[in-house]
Amino acid sequence: LHLGVTPSVIRQRYNLTARDVGSGTTNNSQACAQFLEQYFHDSDLIKFMRLFGESFVHQKSVAHVVGQQGKGLAGIEASLDVQYLMSAGANISTWVYSSPGRHEAQEPFLQWLLLLSNESSLPHVHTVSYGDDEDSLSSAYIQRVNTEFMKAAARGLTLLFASGDSGAGCWSVSGKHRFRPSFPASSPYVTTVGGTCFQNPFFITNEIVDYISGGGFSNVFPRPSYQEEAVVQFLKSSPHLPPSTYFNTSGRAYPDVAALSDGYWVVSNSMPIPWVSGTSASTPVFGGILSLINEHRILSGRPTLGFLNPRLYQQHGAGLFDVTHGCHESCLNEEVEGQGFCSGPGWDPVTGWGTPNFPALLKTLLNP
Amino acid sequence: SYNPEPDQRRTLPPGWVSLGRVDPEEELSLTFALRQQNLERLSELVQAVSDPGSPRYGKYLTLEDVAELIQPSPLTLHTVQKWLLAAGAWNCHSVTTMDFLTCSLSVRQAELLLLGAEFHHFVGGPTKTHVVRSPHPYQLPQALAPHVDFVGGLHRFPPTSSVRQRPEPQVARTIG
Questions:
Q1: Catalytic residue among A81, A210, A295, A348
Q2: CB pairs under 8 A between A and B
Q3: What is the pLDDT of residue B173?
Q4: Cα(A267)–Cα(A114) distance, rounded to whole angstroms?
Q5: Is A20 one of the catalytic residues?
Q6: What band does A70 get if pLDDT is binned at 50, 70 and 90?
Q7: How far is the CA of B102 from the CAs of A105, A163, A285, B33, B114, in angstroms?
Q8: Average pLDDT over residues A152-169
């Protein structure tokens, strides 16, 4: 029985034992980035770990802050990112990127991309909670940002983006409703994380779709070859496909993976806050677990995971709990009645290949 | 002249309000995304280092390798720098890969440089953030079309948080 998601709920559900923490002896590192001008407080992290982190070895503070941390109030999203990245990827050096204090004419997310292009040594895993509707961004901007992700992938950085919290999204194009994909979630060079919840919210049971979980098909990027087989299989076999006029069947489909996104406890401004939800929560959880796998790879003398998707799809999501129940939200009209895509066996555009089963995922991602 | 971002949304996001034009002498910091080279090759390398079946799997590039591969051509670097210096930009700094250039300009200089742009103060978002943006589209001289992808800091507003407190657990809501 539990009253909301805490680190021990996460660690139990994803089969992380007290031994599954960073060794503290490698150059392993991870980072979270948010662009909401929010701050996190070290004191909140200490309180959070005192409340929820006693059962596993963890670091008591963030290793490196990029961008000013103000003296203002802590933000829930900034607190959530740090606390759950350092709980899932426990005892691993953690950086926080936040953009307060930037010049008023600058774009926070663009400043983060410049940092990636200017720092030789960066953490291996980056979890990022940022997204915009694809249709609101210029193609020049989207294509250039996508190239920045290619640069990061070539360097072996693992970029995880939240898939968004509006399900398939919805907008009207010349009077007709269509689903509304999100970017950078739709970039073929990042790993996108969707959201799930427990079938019974008060027990650690199997997971079903969290109806907010962002997912769908890009209108900008064609489907990359690494996901062709999985997506075609879904399009052929899903019994609940929405009308094809709602989405671009040949687009890059996302998310790639998922994790719990409903009912988190967070400590912000010294207050424990329940029921915080969103894929901004599932993303640092999945990122922390990839950091643990990097830890084992580094200790075995292997390179870190880098851009995960080609391997993830080649291995058909081995090592992940497949989520096969539930659908996410979309347009509220008679045609689709608020329902977007539905999960199913294998990959689906709501939870991707599913949620991490650590020991099994470690086994499939340790070699080569 | 041409507009590098004709399809960029410029409407005000919900919850943001304009506080009026920016003083012409106020300083701006704008980011210029310079055209890169060898992107096909970059894409091949990403595939090679990310595919477990590839002999090059896990043999990642360093930042310096990436810079050497994709940095803008000398012509692009020279053309853009000359254009910016002629406009009076100062305090320009680049990044290791040389494909971004951030410069300071006065509003007056920026509005002359980026034809059509008009900078306003805006405030909004969950933390009442202040930003300077242009609700009007900007144009660049046609000669720059092969050298500049876009100019950052004119149209896109900071994102808003999507994390929310859902008072009741989701399943209860679904059952309801």
A1: A81
A2: 222
A3: 46
A4: 31
A5: no
A6: low
A7: 11, 30, 34, 9, 15
A8: 98
